[in-house]
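thread: overnight batch results

M.L. [08:02]
morning all. the overnight job finished for the chain we discussed friday. pasting input first so we're all looking at the same thing
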Amino acid sequence: MTLSFGVHAGLQLTSIAELQQLWRRIEDDGFDWISIWDHFYAADPIGGGSECLEAVATHAALAAATSRVRCGSLVYSVGYRHPAVLANTMATLDQISNGRVTFGYGAGWLNTEYEAYGIPYPSVPERLAQLDEGVQCVRALLTEEVANFDGRYFSLTDARCDPKPVQARLPIWIGGGGEKVTLRTAARYADGWNVPFLGPEVWAHKNGVLDQHCEREGRDPAEITRSVNVGLSWDPERIGEQFGSLAQWIAPGVLSGSTQAVVDRVGAYRDAGAELVILALRAPFDGDAIDRFAEEIFPAFA
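M.L. [08:03]
and the structure it wrote out:
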């Protein structure tokens, strides 16, 4: 199985100028994917603070600053913007990038920023139901001349999204690992699936559950790109510098140690079915670590 690599660069405690420099370095290193997240606060509920760049504007900057990589999102929260707003946003971003945008969509999780801004934060089942409806709305708006949808949470009435994306089918990915609902939604509607910071064995199990949902939905599993976000810390003692209080939680999905140890771990994800391994990094960004990954790990999977 062919394996490709990307970088998911967090938007907290950084600047557009720093990110633009980083993105160009990542692209020059030969990575195929760069993505942004969707948070208003730093994604560390305990110690992250509130310094965080906004997602849509940063996604546009990413699209404009690069020329080759796929420009993704992992993932836009269904609770922050109406799906019609997101559909129009993605169509315009695809124009900026000349057809390189991937739209990642999720149910949202960081309740502190919802509460701070007075954004409704319903129960998990409700947020997942909103995601299921939202992805249908976005797909319809991006692909159909006139879109109609009558759901519990969202509705469209002779709605249009013009101009359309450059891509005939702009890829929509679902983010998350919930086995009963999230993976079912992915099986029904997604072009790709992503989940962060799981070890290869747990990731493989969820990948298998997604295949089972595809079988029940009559969907060819090969139509869905499988990806995983992992941390990178060549020195395992330094992972806390990036992830703070979350370091222990993400530990099962961190690449660390010797070159061979990282090759073996990446190989385990590939053998489990991953097609794209994405380094999820946060400031302070270590550009040399990214360069080393490209130089030492890429050749093992060429």
